Amino acid sequence: MILSTTAKRAAGPKAGKPKRRRKPDPILAWKRRLERTRPGLAAYVLEQLRGRYGEPVWEPRWDPTSELILTILTQNSADTNAEKAFQELRRAYPGDGPPVAHRPGPGWGGVGLPDGVTPDWLRVEVAPLDELVEVIRPGGLPNAKAKGIQAALRTIRERRGDHRLDFLAEMPALEARAWLTSIPGIGVKTASVLLLFAFGTPLMPVDRHVERVSRRIGLLPAKATADQAHEVFLALLEPDQMHEAHVNLIQHGRRICHARNPQHDICPVRERCRFVDPKAP
Predict the structure, then answer these.
(1) How many domains does the chain have?
(2) 172 burial type by CB count under 10 A (0-12 exposed, 13-18 middle, 19+ buried)
(3) Spans of the chain, pLDDT less than 50
(4) Are 145 and 107 contained in the same domain?
(5) In the beta sheet, which residues pair with residue 116?
(6) Are both 143 and 82 inside the same structural domain?
C-alpha cells in the first residue's frame, strides 16, 4: 500500500530512525557532578582560603589600557619583570597627562610602580619594532610581546578612534570579553584579567596558579583546557565571588600550594583536596 503525501506527513518521522539527541553541555554536567559527589566544595574552598588570606577588596589598579598592556607583559614572565618593562615604556614614550597613582592591589605579584605618567599609546603603537623590543626587554620575550602590544593598540584605535577602553565597563561581561578576544593575541585569560581588575566585571581569570590549585583540589575536570577552565568557574561561582576566588587561589598557589613541594601540613583546604587524598570528599 502506497501512502499519499498527506498520509506520510500524518504518520510522522520514519519508523526506526531515532531522534538525534543534543549533546550534553560538559560544563553543566561537571557542575552537577560536583554538586552530587562533592557538595559545597567551592564554598568550602572559598571559606578556608578567606580564613587564611582574608577577603580581598576590589579597587581599580590602573586605567584599562595600562591594565591590558601590563597583562600582556606578564605573559610567561614574573610580575616584577612586567613592572620593569612598563616603567621603561613610561620613560621611552611618556604621555602628556598628569602623574597617576598605580596601586598593585591583591593578586598582583610585583612590588608596585611609582607614580608616573601613562605612556603615550600612539607613540608605542607606531614606534619602530626593533626599538620597542629593546624598551620592553626587561619583561622577557620582547619580540613576541612588542608585536602583540602594537597589534592590540592598532586594532583598538582602528575600531574605536583612540586607545581608550572605558566603554567596556558598560557592556555585559561575556560581550566585553568577546570584544577583547576578537583582537589578535588577546586570549580569554588576558581579557578576563583586564575586565575584572579595571571594572570589577564578574569574570574569573585562570592563570597558572589558579589552574594548578584548582586541579589539585578537584574543582576543575582533569582534562579541561585552559579556556574551558574559565567557563567552569563561571558555572561554579556567583558573580560576587569571582574576585575573591581569583585573588585567594593565586595567593594560595604562591604561598603554600607550590608547583613543587606543596606544604600540605599547613594547607587550609587539605581535608578536601584530592591531591592530598584521592578520596577526599
Answers:
(1) 2
(2) exposed
(3) 1-11
(4) yes
(5) 100
(6) yes
